[in-house]
Amino acid sequence: MSIKIKALLAGLPLMALMACANTAEAPKTASSQPAEKVVHSDKNPYPSTYKPYPGAPTAIRNVTIFDGEGGKIDNGVVFFANGKITGVGGADTAIPGDMTVLDGTGKFVTPGIIDIHSHLGDYPSPQVDAHSDGNEATAPTTPEVWAEHSVWPQDPGFARALANGGVTALQILPGSANLMGGRSVVLKNVYARTVQGMKFPGAPYGLKMACGENPKRVYGSRGRMPSTRMGNLAVNRQTWIKAQEYKKKRDSGKEYTRDVGMDTLAGVLDGDIMIQNHCYRADEMAIVIDMAKEFGYKVSTFHHAVESYKIADLLRDNGICSAVWADWWGFKMEAYDAIPENAAILHNAGACTIIHSDDENQIQRLNQEAAKALSNGRRMGFKISDADAIRWMTYNPAKALGIDAMTGSLKAGKMADVVLWNGNPLSVYSRPEKVWVDGALLFDSRDPKLRPVSDFELGQPGEGDVK
After folding, report:
1. CA-based angle 376:163:115, to the nearest 5?
2. Structural contact between residues 421 and 408, judged by C-beta atoms closer than 8 angstroms
3. CA–CA dist 379, 377 (Å, integer)
4. Residue 7 — pLDDT band, cuts 50, 70, 90?
5. Nearest CA to 401 among 151, 210, 185, 119?
6. Measured between alpha carbons, how far is 25 from 286 in angstroms, rounded to an integer?
7. Are strands 108-111 and 418-421 parallel, antiparallel or unpaired?
8. For residues 368 and 393, what is the distance between their CA atoms, to the nearest angstrom?
9. DSSP β-ladder status, 440-444 and 432-437
């Protein structure tokens, strides 16, 4: 009998593997909602079918709490029940008798980590050509493609990000070959059979855009436009003009021919779809800000943004976030003028600062990346607290994704996306001990049954095994 079949017959189906172990009710999977209850529309033709796994009312006491919004409580207590945070308080806060109580002495609690820039599922492991589904590099603008239509839910990277990095939500983006690469999607980091079962309910879509070297290199090498930065802007502007014309026809109430790509661009102009813009150089970011004003849309976040420190005040004044690395640099010319103090300078100027991955390995240690950026800032003389650095991975990315009312901090009424760390998460020695998503315990380092494994990782039938 194959390894896979043995696992299935052992009484722990794969979809139950990540369910709360102490509930008698059979776990409801993320894809179990009946089709007739799912609302489809032109604006939402592939709606989320996500349903939280079952959890138990839980209190974590005697723990150091970073609330995700810059607050810290020593020797505190966190409560959650029915998938929501129900309270956060000090040591003297009474604990209801019906809760599972965990002692967090010497440990730390944070909101779930959120990675605003990931390609998991679209560039999954193992990285082979057959799995390379992130770049539709066939035209300079492809707003008609949606990243979710490439996401492979069985990518082992999702489980690694949960268990090793405490990542409970992430944005999956198309690649950066194109000026307009397509729609992004925000996912809950849970096991599901379908991408709809992972889609973060109520999260806005994003449009991935890209500046600089990538589009001009890809298309210039083919003898096509754009081949220069001025060509990049020209193609962008012409496309936005067409989008304005399309939106005008759509809004007139008269009959019009629907266009999937223009639907996305009109959604940006409506304010329903958020711009997530790959851009390295400060001068290009400034030009994009002007282009956004020309056509009446807003950039949510510049991604990679290694030169954001040069225009921190401009980004702050325009309410634009920068999603950055701690110290990646020099792998191409537009990444050359990076400095390790980038994130700290942005934070010190009052601009929205985010630590992101863009990598299937770095997503597993965003806490360490934030710690490096924090240390570089302190060496520069900036007084930045540990609690502020935690914000770079929790509340700030939630805000930039339009989901901060639902997650990103430990406040009553928000989703119980919670990580219990075995030490200060800004220490290289610390790891997640337990991870909850919507109050369901999906990872426990001390319980082998709560270590998520995708179907793909269970192996193939051997010779002579049942097929």
Report:
1. 50
2. no
3. 5
4. very low
5. 185
6. 54
7. antiparallel
8. 11
9. antiparallel
Question: In whole angstroms, what is the distance from residue 120 CA to residue 155 CA?
Answer: 7
Query: What kind and span of H or E run contains 313?
Result: helix 312-317
Token readout for 43 is: 């604006």
Note the pLDDT tens digit of each residue in 152-203: 999 999 999 999 999 999 999 999 999 999 999 999 999 999 999 999 999 9
Tell me which residue of 394, 351, 391, 357 sits closest to 374, measured CA to CA: 391
CA distances from 65 to 61, 74, 91, 409, 425 (A): 10, 6, 11, 11, 11
Concatenated DSSP letters for 71-104?
Answer: -EEEEEEEEEETTEEEEEE-TT----TTSEEEE-
Contacts of 157 (CB under 8 A, 6+ apart): 120, 121, 124, 125, 360, 363
Task: Tell me if 223 sits within 8 A of 189, measured CB to CB.
Answer: no
pLDDT tens digits, residue range 84-143?
A: 999 999 988 999 888 999 999 999 999 999 999 999 999 998 889 999 999 999 999 999
Contacts (Cβ under 8 Å, ≥6 apart) of 418: 60, 78, 80, 85, 109, 110, 111, 112, 410, 435, 436, 439
- Joined tokens for residue 224: 């096509």
Q: In 3D, which of 240, 245, 179 has the Cα closest to residue 215?
A: 179
Give dist(CA 308, CA 350) in Å, integer.
Answer: 13
87 close to 79: Cβ distance less than 8 angstroms: yes
Q: How far apart are CA 249 and CA 226, in angstroms?
A: 28
| First vs last C-alpha separation in the chain | 8
Nearest to 442 by CA among 424, 419, 426: 419
DSSP-derived pairing of the beta strands 180-188 and 206-210: antiparallel
What angle do helix axes 229-251 and 282-295 make, rounded to 10 degrees? 20
Show the CA angle centred on residue 297, arms to residues 296 and 302, nearest 5°: 140
Give the C-alpha separation, 184 to 121, whole Å: 12
325: left (phi over 0), alpha (psi -120 to 50) or beta: beta
450: Cα separation from own chain's centroid: 22
Q: At what angle do helices 213-220 and 229-251 cross, to 10 degrees?
A: 100
Neighbours of 382 (CB within 10 A): 15
* CB neighbourhood size of 132 (10 A): 13
Global model pTM greater than 0.85: yes
C-alpha to C-alpha distance for 186 and 170, rounded to whole angstroms = 6
3-state secondary structure of 244: helix
